[in-house]
Amino acid sequence: MIEWPKGEVVRVAVALAIMANLFLVPLTGHGEDQAPPDTTGKADPTASEKKPTAAPEYVGSGSCKNCHKGHSKDWKVNPHRNISEMANRSLARDCESCHGPASLHLEAGGGATGIINPLKTSGQAINSMCLSCHAQGSLMEAKGSLHLTHESNCLTCHAIHNNHQERLLKKPQTQLCQDCHALQVAETKLFSRHPIREGHMQCSQCHNPHGAKEKMLIRNTVNQLCTKCHNQQVGPFTFDHPPVSESCLTCHKAHGSQIRGLLEARVPVLCLRCHGNTSFTHDQSQPNKHKCLDCHESIHGSNFESRFFR
Ligand code: HEC
Ligand code: HEC
Ligand code: HEC
Ligand code: HEC
Ligand code: HEC
Ligand code: HEC
Ligand code: HEC
Ligand code: HEC
Ligand code: HEC
Ligand code: HEC
Description:
By secondary structure, the protein is an all-alpha fold. It has helices at residues 6-28, 47-50, 64-67, 69-74, 96-99, 103-107, 123-134, 154-157, 173-180, 182-187, 222-229, 242-246, 269-272, 278-281, 292-295, and strands spanning 192-193, 239-240, 256-257, 301-302. It has 2 domains: 6-125, no CATH class; 181-310, no CATH class. It has a two-stranded antiparallel sheet with strand order 1-3. The chain has a two-stranded antiparallel sheet with strand order 2-4. Residues 1-15 and 17-50 have low confidence and may be disordered.
């Protein structure tokens, strides 16, 4: 449940005011010296002649259902219904939390007038409106992050009235990511892979789509990330294999690989990148000398044996 620190109240109000202003410029007729509203011009062309006298006011969401049956009915299962249970009841604006004060919309009898459709505002306005309530948790690093600059915004991935999709996403997560990251999704179809295609894992378990301290939007440093699910491969061991504590990605791919064990390269090629001189110390008459793992079994480190035999 979202808590409402006092400052947030002001920020929502400001964000909404900015959006409302953008939208209502042609309505009030005071906007000649301002930038044109960031809408797609679908506003009622006769609207400017109506010259409503009053500033828009909150009217409550009771009336919306008269004309927007679908949206109001679906609301009962939308996570945003909890807006009205938020700690600060005075912000219980329901529909108007995102669509702005609706009195002029009602006066006009509906249409594209007197109401904000966030989709028709700018990406920046959308982000700051949503973040006025969602700046915590997974969204802590959201400001200026890759997905919220580069012309994408909250509504690139989310659709607020899309109740049936988990986390109000526009479409199932992997499909969503695939639209822009086809290469990485293709990697998850290789011979050895993290089971994303099988539906046992999601991109967001490793990446925070909203932003992260680490590069590549990963949720943690590489090794902390991997060992959260693979705790047997991490020490401290009595005998460490140095590249393991450096980075799992020295030897492994993150998404998928043609090589067994999600490996970056085949054994022995992989090992010989660093142990190129090993063949000289090994018994050259050994027929299986290239099957390094047959003998050096505990490749991630060992508590018993400095050569990782067990
Ligand atoms: C958390 C923000 C939020 C709240 C609260 C909200 N909406 Fe929306 N609404 C949106 C966004 C964003 C869009 C743009 C389309 C989308 O993302 O689904 C939208 C679009 C709409 C549309 C335009 C038609 C469409 O689907 O594109 C109508 C009508 C609408 N909302 C009605 C309502 C009503 C009625 C309520 C209250 C029951 C409500 N909204 C509550 C964010 C919100
Ligand atoms: C008297 C009928 C009526 C009432 C009451 C009403 N609307 Fe509308 N509204 C309409 C009509 C008609 C449209 C234009 C057709 C559409 O998009 O569904 C519209 C459009 C919208 C849009 C889309 C605007 C756009 O630019 O795409 C939103 C958002 C919206 N209404 C929200 C609300 C909310 C929130 C309430 C309650 C506070 C509300 N409406 C009350 C009739 C009404
Ligand atoms: C007025 C405050 C407010 C605004 C503005 C708002 N939200 Fe929310 N949002 C909430 C609340 C409250 C919840 C329910 C959280 C809970 O139950 O813990 C929620 C839940 C969500 C969820 C989570 C769904 C889930 O399954 O956990 C998503 C996604 C979301 N909001 C996205 C958005 C986006 C995108 C916008 C901007 C278009 C937005 N919200 C604007 C208050 C808000
Ligand atoms: C690149 C796509 C993308 C963008 C852009 C995006 N989200 Fe999300 N969002 C997701 C995905 C995917 C999840 C599900 C994450 C999960 O299940 O762990 C999610 C989950 C959420 C949740 C649910 C709670 C949580 O922390 O996981 C909220 C709230 C939310 N997003 C709000 C927002 C807001 C607000 C914005 C804009 C500032 C935004 N999102 C932008 C993809 C996106
Ligand atoms: C609308 C297109 C779009 C969608 C959808 C999208 N992304 Fe992105 N993503 C981008 C852009 C643009 C960048 C910026 C870096 C770039 O140009 O590759 C980016 C960057 C990233 C990066 C960091 C790459 C780097 O070079 O640092 C990761 C990781 C990532 N996205 C994962 C995801 C995941 C996971 C999803 C699904 C939840 C997703 N993206 C959905 C467009 C998108
Ligand atoms: C097991 C954790 C994990 C999962 C699951 C995962 N990733 Fe990644 N991803 C990573 C790591 C770690 C990196 C950094 C790779 C590197 O540094 O070589 C990365 C890098 C990326 C990049 C940047 C690639 C580049 O070289 O610029 C994108 C984009 C990306 N992932 C998208 C996705 C998408 C889309 C999904 C879901 C299909 C996904 N990831 C699932 C861990 C993961
Ligand atoms: C959210 C949990 C999770 C995270 C984080 C994670 N993995 Fe995995 N990993 C899995 C699952 C689940 C499997 C499949 C296990 C199975 O099929 O038995 C797997 C399989 C593997 C395999 C064996 C693949 C095979 O074909 O035998 C390797 C190697 C691996 N992961 C390495 C990594 C690395 C490296 C990272 C960090 C970049 C990482 N994992 C992060 C859950 C995770
Ligand atoms: C020096 C190279 C190297 C490094 C670094 C490395 N691994 Fe491995 N890993 C391997 C090899 C080789 C295999 C065996 C692959 C096979 O089955 O053919 C393996 C297998 C695995 C497996 C599959 C299960 C198993 O134990 O056989 C997992 C999971 C795994 N590694 C996780 C990790 C994690 C997590 C890290 C980082 C903490 C890491 N690895 C670092 C070389 C490495
Ligand atoms: C990124 C470089 C790197 C890769 C790749 C790598 N190692 Fe190592 N390995 C080291 C380092 C550094 C040490 C520490 C001892 C040293 O300096 O030789 C070490 C130590 C060892 C030791 C113990 C040496 C001793 O003197 O006790 C064995 C055995 C070993 N590696 C086997 C392998 C095998 C088998 C592979 C392939 C699966 C592999 N290593 C891949 C860097 C690497
Ligand atoms: C038939 C078992 C066997 C195979 C296969 C094997 N090793 Fe070894 N390896 C050993 C033994 C035994 C030692 C200890 C030799 C000693 O003490 O002189 C050793 C020692 C090492 C050492 C420690 C430094 C050294 O030269 O003494 C490294 C590094 C190493 N092996 C890497 C590899 C790599 C890389 C491969 C694959 C190309 C490999 N080994 C294949 C048995 C094997």
